[in-house]
Each structure stands twice: as structure tokens, then as C-alpha cells.
Amino acid sequence: MVPPPLYIEGICHLRQCIINDTLPKLIPMIAKKLGLDESHIIDNFSALGGHDLSCPELFHDGIHPNDDGYAVIAQNAFKTVTS
């Protein structure tokens, strides 16, 4: 599962370069090494705004999703797990 993007640099001492750049590349690489194809990856990064940070309305504070954001995560996970 690729985590949602970090909208505010430094919040909770997290860095955008790790959350928004490294993890979206690293997690699929690890999955591939484990023999999983892309259909097994739950991509919450893209679903919640990706590199464009285009869905700030889905977050309370730039890091924690609000109810609508959690609904997107749940739908995304359900779609991936049931396909």
C-alpha cells in the first residue's frame, strides 16, 4: 500500500521528499521483487492527490485524511482487494 501524499512539509516531522517521492517508487519496486504485479498495490498516493497535491480537501491538517479521505482509501483498498 502506497501511503497518501504529505501536503505540508515537516508536519509531524515528516519530509515530503520521502513520502511523496521515495515511497511511491520504492513500494512498487519491493512488490515486484516479491513477485507481485501492479494490480496488488493499493495506491493511496495517487488516489488522494499524488504529486500535484490536488485533493487538499480530503485532509484535516495536511497529513491525516478526513472522513471523505478515509472513504477514498477504503474504496481504493476494496477495489484492489476484490479485483
Report on the structure:
This protein has one domain (11-82). The model has no long low-confidence stretch (mean pLDDT 96). The protein is flat, with a radius of gyration of 13 Å. It starts with 15 loop residues before the first helix and ends with a helix. The longest helix is centred in the N-terminal third of the chain and has 18 residues, at 16-33. The chain has helices spanning 16-33, 44-47, 67-82. The chain is 46% helix and 0% strand. It is mostly helical.
Describe this protein with a few key phrases:
46% helix; mainly alpha; 83 residues
Q: Compute the number of strand runs.
A: 0
**Structural class by helix and strand composition:** mainly alpha
**Overall tally of domains:** 1
What would you report as the Rg, rounded to the nearest angstrom? 13 Å
Order of secondary-structure elements: HHH
Shape: flat
Sheet with the most strands, sense and barrel status:
none
- Percent of sequence in beta strands: under 5%
The pLDDT mean sits at: 96
Distance between the termini: 15 Å
Number of helices: 3
Helix content: 40-55%
Parts with pLDDT < 50 across at least 5 consecutive residues: none
